Every structure is written in structure tokens, then in C-alpha cells.
Amino acid sequence: MADSWANLGIDLHLEPAGSSGLRRGLTDALRDAVRTGRLAPGTRLPSSRTLAADLGIARNTVAEAYADLVAEGWLTARQGSGTRVAERAVPVAGATGAPARRRTPGSPTHSLVPGTPDLAAFPRTEWLRAARRALTRAPNDALGYGDPRGRPELRTAVAEYLARVRGVRADPHSVLITAGFGHALRLLGTVLRGRGARTVAVESYGLFVHHDLLAASDLTTTALPYDELGTDTTGLTGEGAVLLTPAHQFPMGTPLHPDRRAAVVDWARRTGGLILEDDYDGEFRYDRQPVGALQGLDPDHVVYLGTASKSLAPGLRLGWMVVPPALLAELTRAKGHSDTVGVLDQLTLAEFIASGAYDRHVRAARLRYRRRRDQLAAAVADRAPEVTVTGIAAGLHAVLRLPPGTEQAVVQAAHWQGLALHGLSFHRHPRAVAEPLDALVVGYGTPPESAWADALEALCRALP
């Protein structure tokens, strides 16, 4: 049966096989009309009541078809503005009459995946100046195999910076330079397994790549419970170590409660266990005083881990560990007999920090990311009032709490809008005991400034 939507001149070919067939036929016909450009982006569709009366079918059939297409990203539905065709690429007839190439539905145009800063904002000019000064001043022996702990210039700069900004108790001797966080975790896994550890406790929500790195060292991970006070550390028993993001839990965004900070330190002292402190984007805070590093409470039982990946760029492959004295020799041996991190980049970062350029860059980035965070929160409040924005006092991402049961549909809708992003379930440990939450983890640091507005608009179109 072919019915015509007279106002728009579109033939809707509907299957007369009951309500499910009508719904499928209507959904396919509308999708095809959008795909081919017969329904232009921004076109307002009739209400479900009007279209149902026009086609002589049940209103619920139309409403369900609209809902399917909203979830896929073909349509958008906003209270007060009705149902419209989503703003998306459609074929445009060329001179030969053939459809032009367009973006494949679901292929990412913008990324809101957390974990990466705005790479277009990397301070190239200042970095180049620091590189020239560092290379000019470098002694000849700096170009040799070097100390496996890393260049003393960078270890000194890092120790001074962390003491001043993060409250870390360190001297250059206890700092090891690594090729990023993953490299550090592999070294720690090797040492922990060599010490007889079998299990490492982790947070219910986190990065699966970290769990994989520990598993590669033949270590099993167990998930700690999570609630409104952060990760619950009171249940730790005989684990060899615990991996935490206490300053700004990834991805939930909450700082670890003081009582639980004290509890995990007491556990480490009592059992000899090791605390691995991932200071995930701890430098970017907006609405509260910075939460000091957990390492400052007990440097003998905490390994502090940080990188330049969020503050500068992950491609630098520069990170650091502040190591308890009892662990220093084992980690140095695990790292190898010579330095494994590029010496020129180490010298450049040392100069970049010592000159004050690093502080200036972080301050400028903090203002830029805070502006994006505020724009994100305002847009979601205006366009999707049923969605709650949380975890935004610090960091480079926000958690958008969704209505129950909607996470997968919203993630799919976002993909159809050309957005790469993760649902909260993507970061949930497979053995987590907490009740699953429906949410998105939105990294607002990733898009370049020129693309941020478009990425935010696409996100809002995908939200319920």
C-alpha cells in the first residue's frame, strides 16, 4: 500500500502486515526519505496524531516509528519544537545527476571520547624555544645511554613542580621517568608479580586498558564498590596493591572521601600493600580547591603516577613515578640498564617546566576547558532537562546521567550524529558489584576549538 504525505509529496510504502509491519514500513520509508534528501535537515514533521490521521493508522505506530528514528539519529525530538529531521549530511545531486558522496552514518566526525586534550592547542612555539635552549645547554654525555631513572634535569623539575602544585613529598632521587602511564603500570606489574602479589584491587569504573596491563603481568583485578563518597576502600584485605584515582575519580569525577583516603593508607601500613595513585587530570580543577595527592599522607606506601598526556599531549610519551625508597631499586632494574625515554624530549620538558612555560600553559588550558565545561552544562540544561551533568568540578570530562534504560540508545544516536563517545558501561569493570547506571562519559577537552560548537550541538541532538 502506498500512501502519500500530501504536504511534503512523499510516498510512504507501508506493509499491511499488522501493526508491527506498519511500524517497520513507516520507519523504513521515513529513513529513506531522509537518506535521499527528500526530507531536508531541519524539516519539522507532523505530530504523531496528525500523521496517523493522514495515513489512517494508529497514533502509537507513528510515535514508535518516530522514537526508533530519534534513537538512530535520523530525527530529533525536543519539547516545544516538535520532531524534526536531524541536521546531518545528505546526498546532493551533482552535475551528472549522481548522488554526491556523503558521510557514512555512524562514522565519527567529532570525538568526545575522554582522555585526550585539545591537541590543536599544544604550545608549539614555546615548546620549540624550550627545545632549543635545552639542546644548547645539554652536556655531551646527555646524549649517551643515560641513567635508567631518567635525566636528572627532568627528575629535579618534576619533583619541585609536584611538591609545589600537588603536595607530593619527593626528591629527584625518588622520581623515575617513564614513557607514559602504561609503561609505568607495566613496570609496577612486573615488580608486584616478582614480590608474590596475585591480586590488585581497582575501582568499579575505570580504564579497561589498565586492567589488561595488569593481567599481562599475571595479576588478577578485583573491583571495589563505588558510592556517593567515591571508591569504598574499607573492604581491602590481602590484595598486593590497589589502583586509585583519588583526586578526580575516572570517570565518575568525585574526589575520594577523606575517611576513605585515611582507610586505604591504614590498610597499606597494616598489610604492607601498595597504593598506586593515578593522578588523573589532577591539574584541571575549576570550582573547588585542589585535592592534594594521596602520596603526601604516606610516601612509603604510595607510588604516585603522573604524565604530560592530559596537560600537553599523549604523543610526547612522557610520564613519571614518585617511588617509595623500598621499591626504587626493583623498579629501576625492571626499567632496564639504560634510559628508555627520549633524552631530548626529557630535557625539553625540564626546560619547559623550569622556565614557567608549563605553568602558563596549564593556566590558559584551565580557562579554556572551564569555558567548554560551562557551555556543555548550560546546553544540556536547556536542551535536555532530563539529563543531569555531574563530575565537573575538575578534569576534562563530564558524566551525563541519563533516564534509566536509555544509555545504549543514546550512544547509538550519537554515533549516527557522527560523534565518537562512550557510555558509562564501557568503563565498568566486569566484576563490579554496584548497580549499573545509565550515563555518558563526555570528554570535552578533545575537539579543537573550531569544532567544539558543532560537537556540542551534535551531542545535544542525540540526548533524550
Plain-language structure description:
With 464 residues, the chain is of the alpha/beta class. It is 39% helix and 16% strand. The protein contains 13 helices and 19 strands. The strands form six sheets. A seven-stranded mixed beta sheet has the order 6-14-13-12-11-7-8, sandwiched between helices. A four-stranded antiparallel beta sheet has the order 15-16-19-18, covered by helices on one side. Strands 1-2 form a two-stranded antiparallel sheet. The longest helix has 27 residues, at 357-383.
Distinctive features:
13 helices; 464 residues; alpha/beta; single chain; 4-stranded antiparallel sheet
Would you count the extended β strands for me? 19
Widest β-sheet, arrangement of strands:
6-14-13-12-11-7-8
Report the major sheet: 7 strands, mixed
Q: Label the overall shape.
A: elongated
Low-confidence stretches: 13-17, 89-104
Helix-strand makeup class: alpha/beta
Helix count?
13
Helix share bin: 25-40%
Radius of gyration: 26 Å
Oligomer: single chain
End-to-end separation in angstroms reads 33 Å
Mean pLDDT, to the nearest integer, reads 87
Sheet-strand content, in percent, reads 15-25%
